[in-house]
Amino acid sequence: xxxxxxxxxxxxxxxxxxxxxxxxxxxxxxxxxxxxxxxxxxxxxxxxxxxxxxxxxxxxxxxxxxxxxxxxxxxxxxxxxxxxxxxxxxxxxxxxxxxxxxxxxxxxxxxxxxxxxxxxxxxxxxxxxxxxxxxxxxxxxxxxxxxxxxxxxxxxxxxxxxxxxxxxxxxxxxxxxxxxxxxxxxxxxxxxxxxxxxxxxxxxxxxxxxxxxxxxxxxxxxxxxxxxxxxxxxxxxxxxxxxxxxxxxxxxxxxxxxxxxxxxxxxxxxxxxxxxxxxxxxxxx
Length: 285
Hints:
mainly beta; 5 helices; globular
């Protein structure tokens, strides 16, 4: 097989079978919808193993391994294992304004440690003793091939797929520390959809697609990708001019206005309206 069907969507996750040791990369094929409990996941070799390869084609062509099961029968993990998680701050003007900040003249970058990542559905325990910890709904890019000094015009050739994420943020520490390592870096502060929507090189997400966030069922955030201060091609070129991006690395692209404070017992949901992505639901304790 050399290509997916026109109406077929390819999803990538990582999972562990009950009683089995070790995680496996798994592929799910659907007719457009995000993987559901009854869809079949099949083990494949890691499509990000080749620094200069094409993860889309590797995932399409991969021979299935021994593991084959319904999604509901598996323990889902964060779908990728990035070497780094890069984030963009204040990339929506209204969000910068709601926190009393100026819009940066260049992308404002920071890191989250890979240990922050948890899949949809996993409970995140909020650290105690702080006044405010916020949810931040974001579109997340998955790097597909090694990228250094990539031009904006060629950025989408290096994007393997998309997910939604939640850049959970401790405002107390963000103000106190000035730099954001602790504020953004707690374990569990990077919930991520359980499956990445893999896309062929050159795929461009629709600018009118809206990043949306709910807290306890109430809409808190909704803005089109077109409202980004710095768009995806610009971000990719800007970041890769500074550091080499590796397959599986993640780029959190910024959050719209409407960030909301989290409390134990809350449930946050993040989705993209206009391009089907695996939804992200995170209960907090």
